[in-house]
Write a structure and sequence with these properties.
heterodimer, A: ABC transporter involved in vitamin B12 uptake, BtuC, two-stranded antiparallel sheet, 4 strands, B: Rossmann fold, 10 helices, 10 strands
């Protein structure tokens, strides 16, 4: 009994730290609509800086002062980031800020290793809370008790802040309708900056307060960010109370899951999140997202199929790529095949994101399922390669059909998080079902047959399949189905009122995207000769998002360029430098600032403005002059 | 009235939001080719009524019967398939497509080609789309991006979309809101002409009393969720209760039009 009680208290103590970080993420998203991927990095920075300060400063004041100063310092960094980077991209397509904050995260991961070294750091005990208190015959660290009290105290302070101060009321108003707040004469710039700073402060404080409980290391950011996303979504975006309740729920699930259901402990929180989202689509305390107001004057150029010249240019590009084996060595061809495979993967997500408006945060699930499909067929059933390649992606299709059905009932960030939860569930099955999947050891020895063996042949195979998949996806974009899908993205209301079953259309698109990703995964298994749970991991899902955003989410097939640039750059950097994440992150941040519509999006804008200038005189519409509105509102 | 063939028959509609009885016991009917206006002060329940007719909002109780078929509780898309076109108070169109493509999507849906994946949309029913655009006077706008249309043009595009399924009944929620005076007259004249030609029943809400009294065959006045008056423009204009809650005194809507007639 005593043991369970202590376990419960440990859970509560973890919940407090989780709540601090989650509430920060929640208010940042609520007001600025930024999915702040760097939130984990700020948490980690808070821990590192607090470690240094508490080592240098002495005495009780030194420790507590150090923690506070660390959080403030990181908040200042956050404010600088907001002013220099995020301010430039608020008007970019949704989620583009995710790309920027992802680049920052990569940079911070390398920077902390540069400054503090790669080893785990053990921080000081907190003065006054060094000992333990005996309860039910068990020892409870007194610092845990301090944390348990701190959580509700911070909740109370935040409540007062949001309900009793002018700033807090503005934040709540902006969470509901930021356009209206701006229209009422509030300086939105400073509101955003202060909210971002406050959110980062909470994250860094959460990190700093962890040092007496936990070692500081350079992978803290990813560990916390996923958990925090889960907390925020279960609680309901923008709800501080929800974040608190969800933090307690998640922390207790972690504390007890390992005791009661060790087999599924890793995935327990994701299972709970999936169930919560299916039953309550906006989280426990969330409200339905207000329909975003379409910014007027946001001129969207309608997509058009390739013109003859563009088609020829693409053919030339493909032909040049096909000639690569004549000049390139084996290593370059293997890299080329990998890039072709990631073109398939990125294009499949791009189809879902740009045409369907559905940003999946767990697209690697279907890539990985395709890879495992091939592994099962080749190793367990011993089927020939051509059959494996044809049937392997069907596992991706099946997964997409099951998970997609639930996912498309939601939209926006909730859709993203549900897809992430499903991907984590698939990942943990691959990780923990050792007799079938080999667990962490993966399945080895999946090699191509003679006809596809060798770098050149496999490169041609991958290139050919990539060209076919991208072409088919493009054809679908411009087919009646593609238009119907784009219609559900543009206006659900209009679609439903002209007889379109939007959910079914989106579900179909999800299955198409999942199958295409599965095709990429099938090839990937043969490229690497093995499959691992990593092929389903969050890292891979994030890579896909980055490739799509880098290419330009408002384009028809920008992901192709995004995948080539991102993959080539990251592979090359890893081979050239130990600090590849720092440079890659820096490059991503630069691209975000220089190309706020993604690489292809920017090229299209240039081409369009160049063309508009060259044939401006004849561009007048042939509309009826008499019926031009005089005072349209 | 009861002798005329009824296109739409609404009986005892009710809807409450919390303690607010938004629509109470509303019954009326629409005949083919008839233009019926639903008017009333803000918050009278007009839009709620509309949303219950095409399934946007489920009714608490009551029946909606379209051409003899009970359509209560059906989804908007099912109601559309039975021949009800709809335009919105705040326009809902596809901003990322051209004007013609907007209409093409409606035609794709109407011809049940939503899951056709390997054909190009470009040539799909483009003649039919242009014909519909011609009906609402937008043939010159076909290739324009929808995102850059002026509000009045969006309203006309919505009308073309609503006509794509060859509807028997048109539901138009404030069709002329946000339009310039000349455009209003033009749009309603166009609507009336199409309705008469094709025997389409039109039910619309409107705040512009010039438009209402000039174009409606019959008017229903809602106040606080209940029908307080129903009849020809003349009857409604002279109804003292309507004057009290809505029109006020000393107004002469539509009278100059009759003087000319």
């Amino acid at each position: 009994m005593g043991f369970y009680f202590v376990q419960f208290l440990t859970g509560l103590a973890s919940a407090s730290a989780l709540f601090l970080v989650a509430s920060g993420l929640s208010i940042i998203f609520g007001v600025t609509r930024i999915v702040n991927f760097a939130h984990g990095a700020f948490y980690m920075l808070g821990a590192y800086i607090a470690f240094t300060l508490t080592e240098r400063l002495s005495g009780a004041f030194g420790f507590w002062g150090g923690i506070l100063i660390a959080a403030l310092a990181v908040a200042v960094i956050g404010v600088i980031v907001e002013m220099l980077l995020l301010r430039r991209i608020y008007s970019s397509p949704e989620l583009f800020q995710l790309l920027a904050t992802f680049g920052l995260t990569l940079m911070v991961e390398d920077l902390v290793v540069l400054i503090w070294g790669p080893d785990d750091l053990l921080g000081r005990r907190a003065p006054g809370f060094r000992g333990a208190v005996e309860m039910f015959g068990q020892n409870v660290p007194s610092y845990d008790l301090f944390m348990i009290v701190l959580g509700p105290v911070v909740l109370g302070i935040l409540w007062l802040l949001f309900h009793r101060t002018r700033w807090g009321i503005l934040v709540r108003a902006a969470t509901q309708d930021r356009d209206m707040v701006a229209a009422l004469g509030v300086n939105q710039k400073w509101l955003f900056t202060s909210v971002f700073g406050a959110g980062v402060f909470l994250a860094a404080l959460g990190g700093a307060l962890q040092i007496p409980r936990d070692a500081v290391h350079h992978a803290l950011d990813l560990r916390i960010i996923v958990e925090v996303f889960v907390v925020v979504v279960i609680g309901g975006l923008g709800s501080i109370t929800g974040a608190f309740v969800a933090a307690v729920l998640v922390a207790e699930l972690n504390a007890f899951g390992i005791l009661i259901l060790p087999k599924v402990s890793i995935v327990l929180v994701f299972l709970v999140m999936a169930v919560v989202l299916i039953v309550r689509p906006y989280g426990l305390f969330g409200k339905p997202e207000a329909v975003a107001r379409k910014t007027p004057g946001l001129s969207v150029r309608p997509w058009a199929p390739f013109t003859r010249n563009e088609r020829i240019a693409c053919l030339v590009g493909v032909a040049l790529a096909a000639l690569l084996p004549l000049v390139a060595g084996n290593y370059a061809l293997t890299v080329g095949a990998e890039i072709a495979i990631f073109v398939i993967f990125a294009a499949s997500l791009h189809f879902l994101m740009s045409v369907g408006g559905l940003a999946s945060f767990g697209h690697a699930a279907y890539f990985g399922l395709g890879a495992y499909g091939v592994a099962f067929l080749a190793k367990l059933a011993g089927l020939p390669m051509i059959l494996c390649l044809a049937l392997g992606p069907l596992l991706g299709l099946a997964g997409a059909a099951i998970f997609g059905f639930f996912a498309v009932q939601l939209s926006g960030v909730y859709f993203a998080m549900l897809t992430l939860a499903f991907a984590q569930i698939v990942w943990s099955i691959a990780f923990q079902w050792v007799p079938v999947t080999g667990g962490d050891n993966g399945i080895l020895g999946i090699w191509p047959e003679q006809w596809a063996a060798g770098p050149a042949r496999f490169y041609w195979l991958s290139l050919g399949i990539a060209v076919a998949v991208v072409s088919i996806l493009r054809i679908i974009v411009f087919s009646p189905f593609g238009y119907a899908l784009r219609g559900t993205r543009d206006s659900l209301l209009r679609s439903e009122s002209i007889g379109i079953d939007a959910k079914r259309i989106q579900w179909t698109a999800f299955v198409i995207a999942g199958t295409a990703a599965g095709i990429g995964g099938s090839l990937f298994a043969y490229l690497k000769g093995s499959v691992f749970p990593d092929n389903i991991g969050i890292g891979l899902s994030v890579d896909a998002l980055v490739m799509v955003l880098l290419g330009g989410v408002e384009t028809v097939s920008g992901a192709v360029i995004g995948a080539i640039v991102f993959k080539a750059l990251s592979i090359w950097l890893v081979s050239q430098t130990d600090w590849s994440k720092l440079i890659l992150g820096g490059v991503i941040v630069l691209i975000v600032v220089a190309f706020p519509k993604g690489i292809v999006g920017m090229i299209e804008t240039w081409r369009h403005s160049w063309r508009a200038r060259s044939d401006a005189p004849s561009a007048k519409p042939a509309g009826l002059a008499a019926s031009q509105p005089e005072g349209a509102e | 009235m009861s002798e005329a063939p009824r296109l739409l028959f609404v009986e005892g509609l009710n809807k409450s939001y919390g303690g607010v009885h938004a629509v109470r016991n509303v019954s009326f009917s629409v005949a083919p080719g008839e233009i019926l206006a639903l008017i009333g002060p803000n918050g009278a329940g007009k839009t709620t009524c509309f949303n219950m007719l095409n399934g946007q909002t489920p009714a608490d109780s009551g029946r909606v019967v379209l051409r003899g078929q009970d359509i209560s509780g059906k989804q908007p898309r099912e109601v559309w398939r039975l021949g009800v076109g709809r335009t919105f108070q705040i326009t809902a169109t596809y901003a990322s497509m051209t004007v013609r493509e907007n209409v093409q999507v409606a035609l794709i849906s109407f011809q049940s080609k939503l899951y056709s994946m390997l054909n190009a949309t470009q040539r799909f029913a483009s003649d039919e789309a242009d014909r519909l655009l011609g009906l609402v006077g937008m043939e010159g706008y076909a290739a324009r991006p929808c995102g850059e249309l002026a509000y009045g043009d969006l309203k006309r595009l919505e009308l073309a979309l609503a006509l794509a399924n060859d509807p028997k009944l048109l539901l138009m929620d404030e069709p002329t809101a946000g339009m310039a005076p000349r455009e209003r007259v033009e749009l309603m004249r166009m609507t009336a002409q199409i309705a008469r030609e094709k025997e389409i029943g039109v039910l619309f809400t409107e705040h512009d009393m010039d438009v209402v009294f000039e174009h409606a065959d019959r008017i229903i006045v809602l106040n606080r969720g209940s029908i307080i008056s129903e009849g020809s423009p003349d009857q409604v204009r002279n109804d003292p209760q309507v004057k009290a809650v809505y029109l006020g005194d000393g107004l002469v809507f539509g009278q100059h039009a009759e003087a000319h007639a």
